[in-house]
Amino acid sequence: MERAALYIRVSTDDQTEYSPDAQKKQLIEYAKKNDYIIDYNYIFSDEGISGRKAEIRPAFMHMISIAKTKPKPFDVILVHRFDRFARNREDSVVYKSLLRKDCDIKVISITEQLEDDKFSIILEAMLEAMAEYYSLNLADEVKKGMFEKANRGEHSGTLPLGYKLTNKILQIDDYYSAIVKEIFELFVKKDYSVLEISRYLNNKNIRTKNNTMFTTRGLKYVIQNPCYYGAHRYNYRQGSQSIANDNKDWIIIENSHEPIISKELWHKAQEKIYLSKLMSSSPKKQARKYWLSGLLRCKHCHGSMTSTIIKNKYVSYYCCNRKNGICKTPNNISLNKLGKMVIETMENDLNNNTINAKRIDDKYNPEDQNVLNLKLKTVQRKYVLANDAYLAEIDTLEEYKKKKSLIRTEEEQTLEELNKINNKIKSSFNRIKFKNNIELLKSSELTQLEKNKIIKTFVDKIVISSRDKYIKIYYYFIG
């Protein structure tokens, strides 16, 4: 007799018939009818958890790890339906393949009977696809419900500090909103760290709404929550899990309720958090992520400039060759001061018409045109060779027609590629786009990395000298 493990999964949206007890009862009955032996140590159950991602199902992952032990502890895994095992086809294929090939363990659905034949493979794939469609469609419906609530201005989830709930609408709580304002003022304007704010509030005997002391974790959540500038954030976490979703999956509804702080102050707080993360990372990572990184050159030795952290608070750039003993002229400047100089220089260049930009053609090389012209001559030569082969009775008329058709297709493709190059529009430096880019670089709402990507679309390098108070920006444009 074969040994069976049972896997049970129930998500929050399941109906009564899919309850853990109902699934377990049916699985045991099936095992008895089909002469499977059940070891009750191998009954695995995930309750109230989505099936979309296997990694967030602890019982499932525990079952897989046990299945990989030698000798194998069971021969089959019984599930109520295949969508209990996985609603994601990628997970399903990966784990079923692992179980079958590496462990010699089959997954059996007790309500969707399949035989070991080719048709069953197609049918199983169809069932899994339907389950995944249901899961994705359900997620869409949940998001629609979130949007409907947001459009009505209704709040769902944990009540944020500084607000009270009146008819499902967030209203400002005067006492706690003053604490929230103080948190942001201390963090942004007085440059307190999160730890310093925590100590400050706790020492003044200020407590949370639950009458507990403030923690750095709780304060970070407050500082990063967009609700304080008047926006609702939905789909932040994975159900009841403490794991945050990717920010691309969040639903942000602007102007949904009365703000406690300005949007500008909130974005400045996010920028500080971003910078603090960089400061705690390795120097190699830091150098790539500040908005002027990869562009700065020393006027005195033409070497690169790199960033460093001063007193664990300020970003400064210095000449790499100076540190290595090659450059003899000191050249150090703070990111804050340099950033203002760069913006001012760009605006002056635009206003005074002193932008001297070199052109860089996008994916265009004059040599490509020569290669295509040679290719066209070679292709057209094939007409002559095909004709000669037909006249010499090497090819039949049908073979000759087929060859001509293939040659014509190749000729048309080559001509099309040539036309793309010959008809390429030669663009010029776009002053309007340049001005818009400056405004984006001045924005407090963009991260350092986003600004770095923007500036690298039109700036080739920036030559500076802190001693001479010199700066020159070299621009480029793509033709």
UniProtKB/TrEMBL annotation:
The family database entries (Pfam families) matched by this protein are listed as: Recombinase (PF07508), Resolvase (PF00239), Zn_ribbon_recom (PF13408)
Can you cite a GO biological process for this protein?
Answer: DNA integration
Q: Which ranges of the sequence are coiled-coil?
A: 397-428
Gene Ontology MF annotations: DNA binding; DNA strand exchange activity
Domain named Resolvase/invertase-type recombinase catalytic is located at 3-153
Is Protein transport found in the keyword set?
no
**InterPro entries in the cross-refs:** DNA_bind_recomb_sf, DNA_bind_recombinase_dom, Recombinase_CS, Resolv_N, Resolvase-like_N_sf, SSR_resolvase, Zn_ribbon_recom_dom
**Domain (Recombinase): residue spans on this chain:** 160-280
Enumerate the UniProt keywords alphabetically. Answer: Coiled coil, DNA integration, DNA recombination, DNA-binding
Q: Which residues form the active site?
A: S11
Gene3D superfamilies, alphabetized: Putative Large Serine Recombinase, Chain B, Domain 2, Resolvase, N-terminal catalytic domain
Q: Which domain of life is it from?
A: Bacteria
**Per its record, how is this protein called by name?**
Integrase
Organism from which the protein derives: Vallitalea longa
The gene it comes from is int_2
